[in-house]
Design brief:
heterodimer; A: 475 residues; alpha/beta; eight-stranded mixed β-sheet; six-stranded mixed β-sheet; B: 682 residues; eight-stranded antiparallel barrel; 34 strands; globular
Amino acid sequence: MKRQAMLLIASMLFFVPAAPAQTQSSAPTETLIRNATVLTVSRGTLRNSDVLIRNGKIAAIGQNLRAGANARVIDATGKYVMPGIIDCHSHSMIDAVNEGTLSVTSMARIRDVLNPTDVDLYRELAGGVTTLNILHGSANAIGGQNTVVKIKYGRPVEEFIFPGAPPGIKFALGENPKRSNFPPLPGQPRRYPATRMGVEETIRDAFTRARNYKAAWDEYRARLARGEKNLIPPRRDLQLEPLVEILEGKRLVHAHCYRADEILMLIRLAEEFGFKVRTFQHVLEGYKVASEIARHGAGASAFADFWAYKIEAYDAIPYNAAIMVRHGVNVSINSDSDERARRLNIEAAKMMKYGGLTEEEALKLITLNPAWQLGIDDRVGSIDVGKDADLAIWSGHPFSVYSRVEMTFVDGEVFFDRQQDLVRRAELERERAQLEQAEPNRPPAQGGAPPPAPRPRRTAYEHADDIWDGGDHDQ
Amino acid sequence: MKNARLRIFVTIVSLCAVSLVAPRCGLLYAQQQTSVEAINTYAITNARLVTLAGPTIERGTVVIRNGLIQAVGPDVSPPADARIIDGTGMTVYPGLIDANTSLGIPAPTPQPTPRGGQGLLAFLTQPSTPAFSSPNSPYPPGLQPEIMAADLVRPGGEQIEAARSAGITAALSAPREGIFIGQSALINLADDTPQQMIIRSPIALHIGFTPLRGGTYPGSLMGVFAAIRQMLLDAQRYDQAWQTYERNPRGLRRPELDKSLAALVPVIKGQLPVVMYADTEREIRRALDLAQEFNLKAIIAGGTEAWKVADRLRQQRVPVLVSLNFPRRTTAPNPEADPEPLRVLRARVEAPRNPARLAAAGVQFAFQSGGMTNMSDFLNNAARAVENGLSRDEAVRAMTIRAAEILGVADRLGSIEVGKIANLTITRGDLLDRNRRIAHVFIDGRPVELRPEAAVGPPSAGASGAWTLRLVSTEGREYDLTLNLQQQGERLTGTLQGALGTADIANGSISAAGEFRFTARIEYEGQTTEATFTGTVTGNEMRGTVQIVGRSPASFTGTRTGGPPSRAGTQPAPPPSGSTDLSGTWNLTFDLGDQALPATLTLRQQGERFTGTLQSALGSSEISDGAVGTDGFRFTTNVTFGGESFTITVSGKVQGNQMSGTVSSPRGTVSFTGTRPQGGER
């Protein structure tokens, strides 16, 4: 008995959990992927080709490439290499989604609430995804500031931030900001606005205030420049500063929307104030106003075939993405769901069936197009020399339901490796067995509360748009 | 000087004697008497002295005079007027400090049923009526940094007594709720008035990152950071604006006065530290980011995963107030339950290793109780930190001098040195041994009364069992009661039934000699009131007195009619005859006026007690204090909504497979009904 206790203490003292496979930092500076079918996205499909990765960048693409003596060489014969998938609408890795108390919450920042340990990130890597646009929810006409991340699972959060990605912000139109599906809770007043007219007015009012704010600062700076003394500077307003950045073209607007009329409304309003909407998100009726969206210069980030979950989502068709592409809109397919994010390849493939996009056009929906929408197409989105080595090796063509990801690279480092994952599962089971023996993990000797009954994890994810729009469900 | 005070004293005494005037005079008299006549000199002799100011003195004397340490050393001889405590076999430590609590600060008062009587959902979503609101603040409660713990603390109370009995002499105290929670005070856990208790105020501004409730901005973690950032920026401008204005007001519109922003000015200038509540790695990183952004003098409180951020904590010179409320599994084994997440299993094992890792990394830290309910865990878990690699010396320091250093009071507290405040914790056995006992506690130079330490031992048959009691009031009225007691070590739990209603007993304790004490809510002469039972158990007899609020005391005698119940866990007792077995799964519906909230209640009954879980759209929670009698059942549980936890009390009656009753909460009462599907798990 005593000896057992000693063993237990010893095992507790000396047992150090194995470092997760994906956090190994000793990545070779060179990796050569040999003899793969390379879906470059920008320049078609290259058969029997090599991709050389050096210092986190794609250094060469071609046949019979040579690497240094220390390079890691991966034989990808019969396998496919495609750029890392970019999800232009994600709510993974955040501890809060909506600041739903006000209709204008541009001061809220997704960057403040990132959770780099969210296991969904690992699952997304396993689906070949490398970049996420993490958005605020759609409870407010003007929501919070988004963050674009590279999925460097296992690393400190600072390393996730996509370097140089332009800042952005979430807008929302229609039922969610007017709270039609979220009646006020007992004892609480209804939040303004309650109509689409009110949503427009809310945005117009905010930008009018932002203009005045900018003018106040301009005047202060001018007086300061004239040498005036004894001045009290205007108040720094964190709500209006991001809106000034939008007016100055420095911040991208990602607007959640459904109906054609509200899409046209925001285009008119943006043009009145002299800014551009970068993407319309969801944009289920985008096919009705595709020319107008293209003329404004906005992108569209849509679902493949997800609709009818509320009134404003009834007039949807699966040809939406293809019709917008044919009208010259930059279109992406997004997930808005931790679950769907793992299979965006299949979502993109559907667009070949519905609307007859070519393979390359369909691939662009989840790579180069969302890269443009996020202003990072000079860095990612295709397999081109000089771009970041964010890519995945697939067992077969990524548009086949039978294919799966074997390895996912971010900046040339492996963050998902199917073979290592299989090994690690056994390690985790051993760790679990050991941990369960540890004193604080053992059930109380007598009594104790019954454990919670099993229940499905995050059921609400089935209705991603609604839950994330909800605000009230958050936290 | 002394003569002068004595003269004043004599004058006051004669004045009182002559005129027998106002009670004020009496008060002055009492104060003067204390300063002149009460014993204020003590010497603890022949004790081991862990001074922390130098090497430990294996055998020495500490002299306390007038609240301060007057002398300490191996060769000190006690003064003639000192009361001498023979410290042979005892160890004297600097008085322990709990580095973050809400001790002495009243809990929020329960609110009446909300408008419209919409029930559960309404109370959960109502603006939290905070315990404290600052008049004329332009900000909502929760964003009022000017709230001062020093204005709120009150002496006495159950929690202060419990902390003291665990050897804790002083505590950092701040209100419980909010984002800008308010400014903390360091208090001594004794003395008669708030003014006497406070050692120093303010110590720090406390920041919690809990969103406000009831639809008030900020209602999410994102908003919390945005709101903090905006207010700190506003405070910078406020300071600048007033300086500019005061220099030359002519031609300038005067800035608005804002007491909340004014309270933040010392914070943004780095003059007042900020205690930020953060446990997980990411919470700590966020807090450190915020501190860096505004150049705040940060202290992390909680710090469960601080070891993962140790390098950065050291580089930014941020100390940690480490919670000793280490997590441990509280749920019973069940093959049908989901396996616990690896993350949870890891966290429970890592928590006691955290202090040693922080020490190794050179991060400054002190211990705090972290809201633990059983204060004896404070020392026991410090001992677990030692078992997990922390040196004993560092562990003792983390409860004394390190806390004093971090809180900026090391010049007056935290070690046994001449001239420092005479707070001492005196033990039999080493402070960090599991079987140590707190022998004496001195606070401000005076010994404090200790409650019997709640040792965790096996259930003892001492007082356990069913008792028949007869209570006789001063007026001669008689009441018959049944008392079911369960003794565990020095802890006493159980229920009271009969002529005074049905109630759980609370705060029960019993000494080895059989002297016991407990409280219960009773129905006495038409009123529900609190009664305190004190008495002695001798064999199968007990006798004692009952103090009833607002009444003259009553006496009671009792005999044991039933043996101690079989031990829970080994052999579950059958449900008491005449009452239904509640075990099984119940489908409940809470009536919220115009809405119905479904819930599932899973119960397991053992004798007259039961455990279980309540699951609803508001989450899943374990129930506690479950008790069932002939006239119904009762339990409490915590419901979390919007990041806040509420205690609700559920009581009701069962008939076969039907139940009905009420749920009461601090915000109101709603009714519910329930059924137990046939053929379900029993």
